[in-house]
Amino acid sequence: MPRRLVLSSLVLALVISLPAAAQETPTERDAARGVLQQMALLEKSIDVPAIVARLTGPNATRDAVVARAQALMTGELLALGDDITRHPEHGFVETRSVDKLVTWLRAHDFTVTVGVAGLPTAFVAKANRNSGAPNLGIIVEYDALRGTKGDFHGDQHSTQGPIGLAAAVAMSEYLAANHLPGTVTVYGTPGEEMMPPNAKTVMRDSGVFAGADVLVRSHSSMATTRPAPGFGTCCMNIDGTKYTFSGAPAHQLTAWNGRNALTAVIHLFNNIDGLRSNIRPEARIQGVITEGGAAPNVVPDRTAADFYIRYPDAVYLAQMTQMIDDAARAAALETGTKVKIDHYGDARDGISVASLAEVGFAYMKKYGATNIAPEPGKPQGYEETGSVSSDIPGLGFSAASSSAPNHTYEMEADALGEIGHKGFVVDAQAMTALLFDFATRPDYRAAVKQEFAGIKAQFGAYQEALKKVYVLPKVPDPK
């Protein structure tokens, strides 16, 4: 069998089997059946394995650009990442971290605007030496997690910035030295671990990402992975909702003179537990009480709870959120209190494309990534909000950089050690190589654009199919 036909058959088999597994519920898989068949035909027409073979073969020019990114990492930027790791700042107050990144970019001939989209620690940096299309976009993060011992970099965001900076400068220098068209833009995105606001969505809505032809970023991982092409993965569909209860104070010895807002918020949690038998089992409802009263001898007149409500798809999530809102209203009604419902933030799953993911994965292996996951994971957009990765094609690089799970102190420690440093350098090299291909190969850009547009169209068809199957039960009036 000719090699091209073999490769096409392999990618067809991959797309038929893996995205179906990404739709996490039987209902989703049934609704996606026709959509996945269309996606299989799309992937066959693009022939991703042939693209990978064509791009990742010997190329001395590409290797020189990648070597420049590697030199920047080992010479300056790993140390910058270590410094940010040792001085963690949680979302939207990352002033020191941003100053370090911005100062380095300005020293390397980038014009930087800080405070974009009304977010004080968001920034956009453009290389002064470049212009024209394509616009190569690089997302960098720098916020730490909030922990009981204080802020800490348990997701290694501390070196996402230096990784992106290495790729940005290496590509900017190459394009300028060879008088090639192309713009290099670095997007500093704060508060990835926090809502509200959902920073990337706020920046998108403000037009910050307008004009980007591709967006890349990196993220810590225990394994070297890449997503399958498609959409539909838990748990990036999130509604952030705050429930604030208002009661009336009274002395606890005469509590009947007040209305207990703490009882109301406890009833909310109990009501949610009571609903679980009527909520699809793939749901995740996670909440904490953020205000519980001021003193034991005073009936609490104000309490609040903060919830992340998650489901694998956004269509059923809307029904779920309505049920939780009604549970809050019921808690207020039964306790004589009042409730304010604030849907303060949301995140939605995004789109992944094989023409970027498989090329990036091949480069990570080429440059020595460890703990290789042989099969693609679920489809997943390259950044957690989904909103941007549903608009612009891109890839999140994830070479193994820790032996510990995400959001742990052990992962933070690995950011300062050999395993972290090796993974970070691999990410910078692979990111640079992919950007090189995207900038210098119009045929590659066309393939990425074709695949992204095709999957996005199927995503819309998938949403419409789900709306038809998530039918609300008809509840009659009691007789």
Protein architecture, described:
The chain has 14 helices and 10 strands. It has 479 residues and is an alpha/beta fold. The protein folds into 2 domains: 45-232 and 351-460, Zn peptidases (Aminopeptidase, 3-Layer(aba) Sandwich), CATH 3.40.630; 238-347, Alpha-Beta Plaits. A 6-stranded mixed sheet has the order 1-2-4-3-5-10, with helices on one face. Strands 7-8-6-9 form a 4-stranded antiparallel sheet. A hairpin with an 8-residue loop joins strand 1 (110-114) and strand 2 (123-127). Helix 9 packs across helix 10. It is globular and about 80 Å long. The chain starts with a helix and ends in a 10-residue tail after the last helix. 52% of the residues are buried. Mean pLDDT is 92; it is low at 1-21.
